[in-house]
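To illustrate the input format used throughout this study, we show a single complete record. The first block contains the structure-token representation of the backbone; no residue identities are included at this stage. The design step must infer an amino acid for every position from geometry alone.
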């Protein structure tokens, strides 16, 4: 029976449909493979400096590239990567932006999970002191959500140490929430100096020059939640 030439057309249509299904299946398998690779990616090293170096090298950036993006000197960046200096939280946010990484990913690894619980003994304690303790002040902080990989906020417990001289305020993108747990603290935001006592809190844009310091000669313990994202 003469089908008017429709037979070849049907065969071509079936071939095209088969090719389309094959491409769809191939694309699906490729996406599954990529997801598997992402989930199988080894966690970055425990050392903060080593994490910064690995992320920088993965992005194929030089120290000079990161220096231009952050305003930090090559020498400062080298000290951070060699674990000779623990950067301030504001510096970590700048590094995260420069490396196109979530801020929390620099502090710790973690997994993509719905929630994470950090017990007191599990807190990751990171101390930060300048090279000369006689001319400045330092602080230590503990990450409170290091087990969650895709976090957009970074809650930390911070202990501020009294200064021997004035320290310059810092600026970076994002916002910060600070709650005073113990001690009296001065928050310098822009041209204002705000005195905060236990139970007081403050929320500010990190783009404003800001500095947190003890109001007297006693350490201050605070809960801070930082976000490197712009509002």
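Output of the design step:
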């Amino acid at each position: 029976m003469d089908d008017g030439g429709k037979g070849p057309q049907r065969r071509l249509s079936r071939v095209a449909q088969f090719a389309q299904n094959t491409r769809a299946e191939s694309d699906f398998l490729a996406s599954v493979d990529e997801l598997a690779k992402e989930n199988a990616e080894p966690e970055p090293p425990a050392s903060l400096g080593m994490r910064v170096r690995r992320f920088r090298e993965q992005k194929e950036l030089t120290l000079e590239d990161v220096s231009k993006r952050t305003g930090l000197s090559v020498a400062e960046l080298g000290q951070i990567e060699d674990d000779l200096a623990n950067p301030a939280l504001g510096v970590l946010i700048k590094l995260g932006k420069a490396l196109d990484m979530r801020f929390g990913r620099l502090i710790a690894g973690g997994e993509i999970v719905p929630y994470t619980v950090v017990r007191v003994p599990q807190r990751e304690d990171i101390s930060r002191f300048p090279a000369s303790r006689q001319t400045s002040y330092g602080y230590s902080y503990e990450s409170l959500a290091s087990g969650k990989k895709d976090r957009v906020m970074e809650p930390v417990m911070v202990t501020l140490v009294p200064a021997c001289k004035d320290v310059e305020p810092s600026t970076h993108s994002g916002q910060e929430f600070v709650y005073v747990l113990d001690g009296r603290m001065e928050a310098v935001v822009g041209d204002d100096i705000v005195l905060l006592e236990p139970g007081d809190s403050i929320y500010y844009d990190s783009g404003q020059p800001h500095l947190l310091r003890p109001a007297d000669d006693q350490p201050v313990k605070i809960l801070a939640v930082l976000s490197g994202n712009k509002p």
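Structural context for interpreting the output: Residues 6-40 form the longest helix (35 residues). The CA atoms of residues 47 and 131 lie 19 Å apart.
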